[in-house]
Amino acid sequence: MRVLAFGTYDAKRHPRAGILIEGLRARGVEVVELNEPLGFPTAQRIAMLQNPLRAVRFIARLARCWFNLARRARRLRRQQFDLVLVGYLGHFDVLLARALFRRSRIALDQLVFAADTALDRRISGSIKLAALRLLDRLAVACADLILIDTDEHRTLIPAGQEHKAIVLPVGASRSWFEAARAVPPTAESHDDPAQPLRVVFFGLYTPLQGTTVIGEALAKLADRRDIVATMIGEGQDRRETEQLAAGNPHVTWIDWVSATELPRLVAEHDVCLGIFGVTPKALRVVPNKVYQGAAAGCVIVTSDTSPQRRALGEAALYVPPGDAAALAQALTELAADRTRVRHLRAAALERARATFQPSAIAQELLTRLSTSNRERS
Questions:
Q1: Yes or no: domain 174-355 corresponds to CATH 3.40.50.2020
Q2: What is the rounded distance in angstroms from the CA atom of residue 239 to the CA atom of residue 74?
Q3: DSSP string over 109-120
């Protein structure tokens, strides 16, 4: 089987494309990459809706990337590919892929829907949202297959297009599993009851992530020397989160950590926090950090939602979405029970190794592709 990975995806910034490519190659699939990273992350794409200058810059950069993609694609048109895989954030790229590879089967990795993401990040305006919904519909219409990460996201696919959906967990790249091996769950530092429980969060502080809930929980833990937290990242709700937790002297704030250093840093903690938001999107997703934290061998503490329970089963500790008191109580109980911490760390890592590795994600994709091929014939 030969696959062309196509588009302006940035595997360093958004790991999903890299996970799929790594997993397919591990399964013996030949993957050719035709990639011109746009370097325009989700936050900047959302910001351009409120700033015309940003929109002009986005269009100019996209045009340059498309020119390079089209030029390079000429060399590949005589080659046969079983699938053209348009990488994450490929809402625009799939339009170009359809124009360049008209006879090829095209799969769009549609982890996020543009209008849904804008609503989650508190973007308003009927014209803007209508335009984003149109973009979502065009993107889905141009693809033969739509890769999504949860059953709940299937409800966002336009009517009549649901048959295109393939549900695949996001998974975690090899570097996170390597970090777990470098800092195994049985390390002495993790089992020493004299050491504080080390909690980590990393993210972009979006409403979906519910970081203000984390801030409130940390405030409730201000007098607990046995619980220390590291908060990594910047974004929309960072300032409010920091203000809420300002009374806790046991919190370290880090603006960001490079992608190469982050897995090891997370693996050095006992607990990785997931998401705690109450927005509709927060109830539909399983975030990257949950897969990555599990692969790094951390206890996963996250919101009690259907997609996260399906992904993690009994290998995580759940609290109600938006409930800061429940989150603080969960961390307090973990700090007092290191045996439970050790068991949950091992369970998360076992779950990740069984189902979140790139090769496992790719095998599921190949199985679904095979089923889809039989249905077509």
A1: no
A2: 48
A3: E-SS-HHHHHHH
